[in-house]
Amino acid sequence: MNGWIGKYLAKPHLVLSLVVLMAIIGIIGYFKLPINLYPDTDHPQITVITVEPGAAAADVEAKVSRTIEKELATLGNVLRVSSTSKDEVSVVNVEFDYQKSLDAAATDVADSLNKIAGQLPGDIRTPQIYKISQASQPTVVLALSPRPGSHLDMVQVRQLAENEIKEELLRVPGIAQTEVFGGYEPELNIAVDPDALARYGLTIGDVAGALNANNVNVPDGLIIKQGSQFLLKTQGEFIKPSDAANIVVAHRQTGDIYLRDVAQVKRGMVEPQSAYRGNGHQAVGMSILRAPTGVTMDGVNAIERYLPTLRRHYPDIKFEISDTQGELIRGNVNNMRDALRDAILLTVLVVFLFLGNMRITMLAAISIPFTYLITFAVMWLMGYEFNMVTLTGIIVAVGMLLDDAIVVLENIARHYEAYPDKLREAVVGGTEEVMLAIFSGTYATAMVLVPIIFIGGYVQTVMRPLSLSLSIALVASYIVSVTVIPIAAPLMLKAKFKPNGIERAALLFDKTIIGSIRDFFVAAVGMALKHRLVFLLVGIIAFGASIRQMPLIGRDLQPSMDTGIMKIDFESATDTSLSETNQIAKQMEKYVLQTPGLESVSTIIGSEPGIVSFGSGKLPQSGNMTVRLVDRFHRPESIWQIEENLRQKFSTIPGLKYVNVYDFGATAMSSIKAPVDVMISGPDRSVLDRIGEQVYQGMLQVPGLTTVSRSWSYDKKEVIFTANKERCALYEISPLAVSRQIAEAVRGLSASVYRIDQEDGIGFVVQYPENKRDEAAKLEDMLIQTFKGPIPLSSLGTLTYKHAPTLYTRQALQNTLDIYGYREKAAITHLDEGVQKALNKIKLPAGYSISQEGDLKQMTASFGALGAAMGIGLILLYFSLVPAFNSFMHPLTIMSAIPLGVIGAAWSLLADGKHSSMAGFMGMILLAGIVVKNSILLIDFIIEARAKGSTVNQAIVDSVRIRTRPILMTACGTAVGMVPIALEWAVGLERLSPLAVVAIGGLMVSTFLTLIYVPILFTLFEDAKRVFKNRFTVEKKSFLA
């Protein structure tokens, strides 16, 4: 009565109040905890986008991308610097390790760009810095289009989206940013007549200069008059676009030449480099992003609530949701909550079958809500969220939570049966007797999880939430077991136990089935003790066979999952126009729209500089689709079957160069471009192209790869004009002036901006009419204005036609070409075997290298970290058991149960058709903590029996006879609690189900083998100790003699 429990029961109010208070906070936390699908596993990334108008891709790469790369590569904590360059646009991405915060990374990048500003071309636009994180992925994408019968066209819809709707959405709480995408940008075309320009001796540059000089509002300074201060400015901006027609372009002796004499002013549309399609039709896309610290579901819910308001404000615009994270997250969390409910029910049912006592079972079950509410409270206070990983940890904990409460209750009940008139003493004595034992079990499990929390890198980012949520639940379970259970126990135990019909059936099950199992193991361990070496040899063979078949299972970083979301990347032929690519996308959508269970499809073609949420750096010939289906519980085919059907249909579409169809989450991180990514590095891109084609053809033969594609091709057509300096000098024109006139004729020239109140301005572009631009493309006959009159371009130099890369990609300051491979469910290690066979046939020239940049690279690092974490965990576990048992040998006996778990884990993965993955490795670490608890029960009893005078063999047999039932109950209760995870009862649980498969298989096998092999090893260690002791005694006597 002098122990802690006695004092607590005498005055329970403080501790009980704290427990209840935490439970109340837990209720609040349950409703306040943010909801997400998965932890943000991406490294901090910063993207720098720089636009150099009119620059060719090669020049952008040489003068912009390389300069920025070199500087950013010198920053601290940088993992990788890569770039993509295309005509006019440079995209440089820098990836930092997890120790670098996103804000600090952005600051460092901004400082670096300021440092090299003078080294960059003078005509570039200011480089834009973008923070890339989970928050930069759209929470919702809206497709906007004119309603049938509306007076609006697509250009007007885009203008409304950018100037009004965007601002309105930013006022909605939970929305941090919106981006508009999809062409249809308005433009004021100054369509010049090349014949009129030639007649007056003018160029497009002369017309653009006149526009710039006449369409201005210029502040002229301050004047002071009679003590008052006035701002003086010159106002000359056009009131309406047609005013531009009346400006004077040039003065001649014959009179002034007006713009209307050489050109027409027309409203038009910017030559599109991008297009957007929503749910199968042309649209303007609007991506809605949350704040970096915001909650995805808050943003989704806010938009869904605000959509009716938007539809009322803009009745002529059709608003559709073409992509959203909301349905997936809602479905996953709801499924996980259902799985948690089912896990609790299954565990309680199993415990009841073993106990046969409804009152004790229900009393033990009371600990579950208290434990979980405390867990939710701590998670909320620590800033965690509900996601697939944290909820998996909570579900895994179910069986272990009841274990602590049952141990306390059974011990109290045993004491009460011995002293029925001393209930209080029974509660105190029964609780205090097992407090240290259950603490040791909780401590042992926590010990193997602790290294995961601090191991660092990708493993920590993914698995730390699981380890923490599980550890918090286990600690909370212990607290509830020694505080709430002792208070509630007397209420249940006062009444005499009279089993009802259900209880009698459970008791009969315990007596017959469990009793038979117990008798079997008593006989088996008796036989094993007589034939120790035979049994030991069989165990070693079984362990060796399990390890040997691991390569057959294959290894993966993260298993594929059917979330109902497909990604489709496609690329058309290099000389395909945007409108032709759009038509190809339309044909692809025709097949997608026939898919049963389709909810939405969002199609992006090309890219727009600075619009990161829709992708950046893509060509007008490339695009991607996001296809959302109903979840797998409500459709007949798996996502992989649907993907294969679509691949076959897409193969019939002419003009498609590549098409990759894969499931959402196909790679572990967004920075990993494909499950298999073979990167070739070297100086000469033509050599990279040749090697890349060999790798591409080899990977096409690799079993398990569904599609193979390249990051770029060497088939972009280019025309190079080489100026003849002597001829240029003869006609008194510089090569630079020739270049400008070529650019003006082909592309036109941007001039000033027409300002509209409260809207973004519309730019003037001076260019030839479309039919004349086609004529200008006949470069040899293009007329160049010189001081000696118009001269054909062919008279000033030579034209050369050649091929070049479609994109210029670099990584680690080297030119690169990536060959991507996609899969369905094949293990990464199995794919790598085929890829390596293909690569071994390729002879690389000096200065060129091939590396794996896909999931394999991250998997190697992650498995290494997991192995280190497990090693550290086992060391911590061993040294925590040494003082508990006051022995260096008994902890080894206890931990010998861990290899027995490996046998079950390996064969369960093989039987279930799953690969060894990071989740499976985590299951093995968790299994180590669980099986040790069972081993402790056996060894602890044997040691106590030996101390009371029993022989070793008798103590072992008695231990197996008495401990079989609680060990089986613990194992079965823990295993059935993980059944919903193993059977993937939630959307996306394929990613974590190997954890449960390993834990269940390993737990079941190790439980049975523990009852035989741990006693055998105990006797062997005892024999070794006795031999060592005898030898030491003999040597000591010899030394003294």
TrEMBL record:
Segments crossing the lipid bilayer: 12-31, 339-356, 363-382, 388-413, 434-458, 470-493, 533-551, 859-879, 891-909, 921-943, 964-983, 995-1021
GO function terms (MF aspect): xenobiotic transmembrane transporter activity
GO CC annotations on file: plasma membrane
Entry keywords, A to Z: Membrane, Transmembrane, Transmembrane helix
Keyword Transmembrane: yes
Protein's UniProt keywords contain Transmembrane helix: yes
Superkingdom in the source lineage: Bacteria
Protein name: Acriflavin resistance protein
Species for this entry: Lucifera butyrica
Lineage of the species this protein comes from: Bacteria, Bacillati, Bacillota, Negativicutes, Veillonellales
